[in-house]
Amino acid sequence: MTDRPRARRSAPRPETRSGKPHAPPALALRAQSRQWRALGDLPALRAHATEAIEAALAVAPIKPLLGAELSLLLTDDRRIRIVNRDWRGFDKATNVLSFPAAPADRIAASPVLGDIVIAYETVAREAETEGKSVADHFSHLVIHGLLHLLGEDHETEAEAQRMEGLEVAALARLGIADPYADGELVTAPAPATSLHANTPDRPSRS
Questions:
Q1: What is the rounded CA–CA span in Å between residue 74 and residue 81?
Q2: Nearest-angstrom CA–CA distance, 1 and 141
Q3: Could you say which DSSP state residue 42 is in?
Q4: Residue 167 phi/psi, 5° resolution?
Q5: Among candidates 187, 104, 138, which has minimal Cα distance to 36?
Q6: Is the pLDDT of residue 135 over 50?
Q7: Distance separating alpha carbons of residues 177 and 136, to the nearest angstrom
Q8: Any idea which architecture 26-173 has in CATH?
Q9: Are the C-beta atoms of residues 166 and 57 closer than 8 Å to each other?
């Protein structure tokens, strides 16, 4: 995720689609690096990730199917560099990678959402540089990765502003300050009540 200073913006209000309730995806969580123990054991990591997932779903315009599967791999810089090289052609470590299971226009009907991969050393290094806790930055990256799986992107300025607004709103639901602006919380929009891949690289500045 690139460091791109931006003016404060209000979070976009999620689209409302009536009918079906939503619930967190069926989360398949695997910790590939022992460094993640700094944030707790596997049940604690699962609980932390689930909170971030629920916050992202509350503001995401597109909702997944009930029981849709989501894979979250907690790894290290060495392994994510290999994934980044083999799948994206970038021979370097990064903070988060997202691999959607279906195109954005079909993800709402897919029984599998895709995969999120997060590297501990990069997360810890960025958190220290930006003056935030590793736990809060981890929450941000889970939200960022899930929004990618649900069709959000930041290839253009308009897309970036929209996606950042959704991230800020989701983080506010967790009591985490806006990482893109001056640290104040924004008012989170009401959660959408209905149901309905990608580049990494961005959660950044405090």
A1: 13
A2: 10
A3: H
A4: -60, -45
A5: 138
A6: yes
A7: 9
A8: 3-Layer(aba) Sandwich (3.40)
A9: no
In a 13 Å sphere around the CA of 161, the CA atoms on its Cβ side amount to: 9
pLDDT at 24: 76
Judge whether residue 136 has pLDDT over 90. Answer: yes
Distance CA 143, CA 95 (A): 13
Q: Please check the confidence at residue 204 and state whether its pLDDT lies above 80.
A: no
Distances (CA, A) of 156 to 18, 159, 164: 30, 5, 12
Which of 21, 24, 30, 7 shows the shortest CA–CA distance to 143? 24
> Which class for 150: exposed (0-12), middle (13-18), buried (19 or more C-beta within 10 A)?
buried
Predicted TM-score (pTM) of the model is 0.80
CB 203 within 8 A of CB 29: no
How confident is the model over 73-85, as pLDDT tens digits? 999 999 999 999 9
Cβ within 8 Å of residue 20, ≥6 positions away: 63, 66, 194, 195
Task: Please give the Cα distance from 56 to 64 (Å, whole number).
Answer: 11
Interior/surface letters 99-121, b for 16+ CB within 10 angstroms, e for the rest:
bbbbebeebbebebbbbbbbbbb
The answer on pLDDT for 194 being more than 90 is no
